[in-house]
Specification:
Family: Belongs to the early nodulin-like (ENODL) family.
Number of strands: 8
Strand content: 15-25%
Subcellular location: Cell membrane
Membrane topology: Lipid-anchor; GPI-anchor
Pfam family, one: Cu_bind_like
Shape: globular
Order of helices and strands: HEHEEEHEEEEH
Main location: membrane
Helix content: 25-40%
Length: 178
């Protein structure tokens, strides 16, 4: 009987860690490095949208930019302003050099540089935030072309989903031993 109780406690702890791990929002450094908010050296190798295609963003995550606030800014804009690099009337404007934007809904978010001519040279970012119902699948659906003209989002596995699946399998294994 004592073995069963220990196994039940172990399984409960494993399941709790699984659900806590899946629900944690994270701060994501744009481009994965502090000097990423700049004009890319080439469209193919240094584009922030290439980085965003390989990342998965969930509701509650935050994007973090590190840049020289005296020389640049981050503008959150509409899809149309993103496509045309229109810096007038942004949704939000950030100039502090240490910008944090909460991704509070699912769908696309669009950002461009506020520095003259930078957006036209490729300093812009579009991210797609997954909805809560897609949180556990590990695969991101691509938005329809009518909804989003930004970079394609390739499906990949989510590390938290893999870790959660491993923890569940471990819990089942522990229960099977007792």
């Amino acid at each position: 009987m004592a073995c069963f109780q220990r196994a039940a406690v172990a399984c409960t702890l494993v399941l709790m860690s699984f659900f806590v791990g899946l629900s944690q929002a994270k701060d994501v450094l744009v481009g994965g490095k502090t000097d990423a908010w700049k004009i890319p050296s080439s469209e193919s190798s240094d584009s922030l949208n290439k980085w965003a295609e390989e990342a998965r963003f969930l509701v509650g995550d935050s994007l973090v930019w590190k840049y020289d606030g005296q020389k640049d800014s981050v503008l959150q804009v509409t899809k149309e302003s993103y496509a045309t690099c229109n810096t007038t009337n942004p949704i939000e404007e950030y100039k502090d050099g240490n910008t944090k934007v909460n991704l509070d809904r699912s769908g696309p978010f669009y950002f461009i540089s506020g520095a003259q001519g930078h957006c036209e040279k490729g300093q812009k970012l579009a991210v797609v935030v997954l909805s809560q119902k897609h949180r556990y699948t590990g695969i991101s659906p691509s938005p329809s072309p009518a909804e989003f003209d930004g970079p394609a989002v390739a499906p990949t596995s989510s590390a938290s989903t893999l870790r959660g699946g491993f923890l569940v399998a471990l819990g089942v294994l522990i229960l099977g031993l007792f």
